[in-house]
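Researcher: Next sequence.
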Amino acid sequence: MLGIVRQKMLEQSLKKIRPAVAVLRSYSSAAKQMNVREALNSALNEEMSADSKVFLIGEEVGEYQGAYKITKGLLDKYGTERVLDTPITEAGFAGIAVGAAYYGLKPVVEFMTFNFSMQAIDHIINSAAKSNYMSAGQISVPIVFRGPNGAAAGVGAQHSQCYAAWYATCPGLKVLTPYNSEDARGLLKAAIRDPDPVVFLENELLYGESFPISNEVLDSSFCLPIGKAKIERKGKHVTIAAYSKMVGYSLKAAEILEKDGIDAEVINLRSIRPLDRSTINDSVRKTNRLVTVEEAFPQHGVGAEICACVVEESFAYLDAPVERIAGADVPMPYAANLERMAVPQVEDIVRAAKRACYRSVP
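Model: Next structure:
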C-alpha cells in the first residue's frame, strides 16, 4: 500500500517537473550567445569559404591573428595568398586593394583603427567611391574597409574619432555601423557581397560583448539588407535613434525611462548611408518626439542629418524640439574623468528624453 502511495506521489511530482524542464530546454536552445568578435570572424570565414575572390589585407591580420583577433585562424585555413600581412602603410595597401577590386577580386581591408584610414582617404574617396560613376558603370569596386571606429578608452584625441559622418557625406560609399552580433554577422556578409565600396565601422569596446543569437542568424546564408534600420524596442512616447555602441546606451536609458512612465522606442540605425529615413519618420509620426544619439562631434553629424530629414518630412508631427546627444565639441581628452565627460552617457539620454516629453529634469 505504501509503495502505491509513493508511486502516485512520484507521478504527480513528475507532472509538475516535466513542464518546467521543457521550459528550461526551450530557453537554453533559444539563448545561444555569441560575442561580436566571434560574429565578425565567422562572417569572414564563411564568405571566404563561399567565394575564392574574397581576401583579407592589412596590418597584423595574418601571423598575429588580427590586432583584435577578428581574423583568428584565417591564415592557417586560407594561406598567405588570401590573408596578407602588410607594413604600416595604409595608403599603400588600401591602394593595392582598390586596384584588386577593379580587376574583380573582393578585398576586405582592415584598418587597425579608422583614425589610420586618414592616411588612405584619397583611395577610399577618389579611387573607390567615385570610379563606378566616373566610368559610366563600367568599373565596379567590390571592396570593404573595416575596423574599429570611435572612442575606445584612454587612447587620446588622435585615436578616438568617429568617422560615420565623414564617410557618409560621400556619394558612392555605403557606411554600416553594427551594434550587436546579429548586426556584425549579417551586415559584414552583406558588405562583402555588395558590388560597391563599403565602409564598415565597428566599435572596439563591443568586440568582447556577447548577445543572444538565433539559429537563423547562425545559418551561413544569413544576410541583412543594407539601408534598413531595426526597431530594437517598441514604444509610443519618444523615438531614440542611435547607432553602434550608443544603441546599447539607448536601450539602458529606455529601461530607466520606463520606470518614470515614459515608453521609448529605440531605433538601431545599422546603416548610415543609405539612411533608413522611412523607419525614422514612421516612428516619429507615432511618438511625436525624437532624440538622436551618437559619439561623434555634434556639428554636421549623423544626428543633424536625421533632424533635417524629420523636419523635412514629419515637422507637423513633432510635439517638442528634437534633442541631439553627441560627443563634446572638443578633441578627445586623455584623462579618464574628462574622457567620460566628452562622450554621451546613459543619463544624458534619459535627461534628453525627459526634456522632449516635458518632464522635469534635475
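Model: The mean pLDDT is 92. The longest helix spans residues 2-30.
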